[in-house]
Amino acid sequence: KVFKYFKPDYIIITGFIDGNLMSSSSLREDNERIVKAVKAIKKIHTDADFISRFVMFNKFRDYIAIVKKHSMKLPEGFIDAKRVVEDIEKIFWEKDSKLVPCHNDLLAENFIETGDTMRIIDWELSGMNDPCFDLGDFSVEIGFNEDQDRLIIETYFGEFRENQFCWLNIYKYMADILWTLWAIIQHNLSDINFDYWEYGMNRFNRAMNAINSESFRYWRKNL
To answer: What domains does the chain contain, in order, with CATH numbers?
Structure first.
């Protein structure tokens, strides 16, 4: 709950949530927590519309524009990744996708367990987006296995849906490519003492390995 917002300084005072801060391992090792987290995500998706928009493909172009403006170095093979993102975007718009309120940054540390429920914090990147982006980003951030990805779909939709499972998997690696660009921008512009380049390259390499796999071709075919 937001108690006070100081607009000139972009400072927000929020209420304290007393609970268990999650980690990737605490979520991966407990399927009941995964179910709680997915229910919390779905609750966001069925809430009132957000003013802001965070369509992953639009954000991808925004980041590309920043990279070009500052003549930032891109990893070898990025042009191939860009083509794949553009191909998936075409399918996305053709399916007449419905945008819903999304968090868009579902790191483990943004979940707080409070008894039988999960609370989600850090809404900086929230905005209207494809709900399956949240599911895919959640999965890739935590490092879930295939059975847990299936559990995400079953919990969210009340049944297993192959088409949505494919979208979840596609978005795992679309998110990797998007956050690669974000990391490159941070590497060039941020003063924080963190190796953003290594972080970004780890995500980029994971995405490219997936994109060149038979599994990715199957997921794309069944979107």
So the answer is: 18-221 (3.90.1200.10)
